[in-house]
Amino acid sequence: MIKLLLFTALIFFTGCLTPYSQSPIAVNFKTTEQPKLQAAAHWNIIAKDISKELTTYRKTPIYIESSNQKTTFDNLFVKMLKSSMVQRGATIVTDKKYAKAVMRVDTKKVYFTRKLTHPRRVGVLAGLGAGVFLLRNANAGQIAAASVLALEGVNYYESRFDSIPHSELVIHIDIFDDKKVLDSLTKVYYVVDKDSRLYTVKKPKKLPPVIEIEG
């Protein structure tokens, strides 16, 4: 009887969707992880990571062309990337005429207004529930030890998965010569909303109008 009711409910709920629609149905992507930049040390980490993924620059003298945007991040990140590439054996030239290829680094901060949330912690809650059940007949020492492990598990989750900001940073890198693109890479990271100024071009200060006084 229960199986029949579940089957009937399944048919009912799946049948709620009409076979035709004016637009596609919005569905979420599968859960993934995306790092959040919260310190200058993180900039250095991603510079090293990118220098590992790009391999073309190790074969030819290269000139690094910085982004048109002069943000705090752009200025420091290009220097960090250059240092990491040199450490991995790259030949970086300071004059474009001596280069066999050019690397262009472009960055763009994007802002999404919708507030996003983490997926539910099904695994953590299930684990804690199972732990309580299994330790009913344990002694005090075992219960105390298990409680510490459970707490550490929650602390691990809270430290690993932080709040989701509205701002993201897109980094795009092209390596090219006169004829073709030799290598290309795009990375996306979260950035703390309060640190947006580090990824935004500073607007020049408006000077007050000059009033000429004829005497």
Task: Characterize the structure shown.
Strands 1-5-4-3-2 form a 5-stranded mixed sheet, with helices on one face. It has helices at 2-14, 40-53, 72-87, 122-134, 140-160, and strands spanning 36-37, 62-65, 101-111, 167-176, 181-191. It is α/β, with parallel strands linked by helices and 215 residues long. It folds into 2 domains: 34-116 and 163-199, Rossmann fold, CATH 3.40.50; 122-160. Helix 2 (40-53) crosses helix 3 and helix 4 (122-134) packs antiparallel against helix 5. The protein contains 5 helices and 5 strands, in the order H-E-H-E-H-E-H-H-E-E. The N and C termini lie far apart (102 Å). Residues 122-138 and 146-159 have low confidence and may be disordered. Helix content is 36%, strand content 18%.
In short:
36% of the residues lie in helices and 18% in strands. With 215 residues, it is an alpha/beta fold. The chain folds into 2 domains: 120 residues, Rossmann fold; 39 residues.
Using the 3D structure, state the CATH architecture of the largest domain.
3-Layer(aba) Sandwich
Shape: extended
Major beta-sheet overview = 5 strands, mixed
**Order of strands in the sheet with the most strands?**
1-5-4-3-2
Structural class, by secondary structure, is: alpha/beta
CATH C-level of the largest domain: Alpha Beta
Amount of helix: 25-40%
Q: How many separate domains make up the residues?
A: 2
- Provide mean pLDDT, rounded: 74
User: Can you tell me the CATH topology of the largest domain?
Assistant: Rossmann fold
User: Which strand-content bin applies to the residues?
Assistant: 15-25%
Radius of gyration: 27 Å
Number of strands: 5
Whole-Å distance between the termini?
Answer: 102 Å
**From N to C, what is the helix and strand string?**
HEHEHEHHEE
Number of helices: 5
